[in-house]
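Ligand-bound model needed. D-malate.
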Amino acid sequence: MKIKVRGFEMGYDDTGGAGVPLVLIHGYPLDRTLWSAQTRAFADIARVIAPDLRGFGESTLPGADATMDTYADDVRALLDALGIKNAIIAGLSMGGYIAFAFYRQHAHRVRALILADTRATADTPEGKLGRDASITLARDQGAGAIADAMVPKALTAQTLKSNRALTDATRDLLARQSVAAIITALGALRDRPDSTPTLAEISVPTLIIVGVEDAITPVRDAEMMRDAIRGARLAIIPNAGHLANIEQPDEFNRVVREFLQTV
Ligand code: MLT
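Prediction:
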């Protein structure tokens, strides 16, 4: 589906179910198909909405600059357009950074949070230099080069060794994204604020999920969020890395379903 929000065409899925709205925000540099194993899995208990962030997937890119607030505002505009007042906001990695921004802007519209393979901290100085190097890489060599650099960090060694189909599909997902969207997102990632102070302000039920072998946002980041968010639960997914929802969809979906039944 497509809808016009804030001056651009946004691609999104909406299962239209009658349950609580559940918004799935993808990470970088991905699109809503990241959630293929989740979109239909909760149809009996949730109305699942999965947007393509600006520039990714089927969404157009209205301008070169964006911040996490920009992406959060885009999600808010989608909810407005769909007549949804509050929702469970779930984000994976950069989607989690956007969930924090959304919470800061519109806490009253957040019924619960799911923070998957993400972290609260800002980029370190070295991390920021790494974003600049990635911007150069994307500009000079395209999305395929970004995919080649990222996939080995995003999946477990076991998947890379023995699951060629999943490895190739993940590479394709990254490699087909637009270079302009990638560069815009890299600027937003580099300049994102530290969300650590937000953690103590979160007063909605929160589920934190992390792949035990996540090399990008490791378990210690998830534990730090669990310790700082009142009442938060942490689920550590075995045999999964940074994209826990695609490497272990059954276990990921099981912990999400269990959480959905309590909120
Ligand atoms: C993501 O998966 O969204 C990114 O890896 C996040 C990041 O690089 O900080």
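The CA atoms of residues 138 and 179 lie 6 Å apart.
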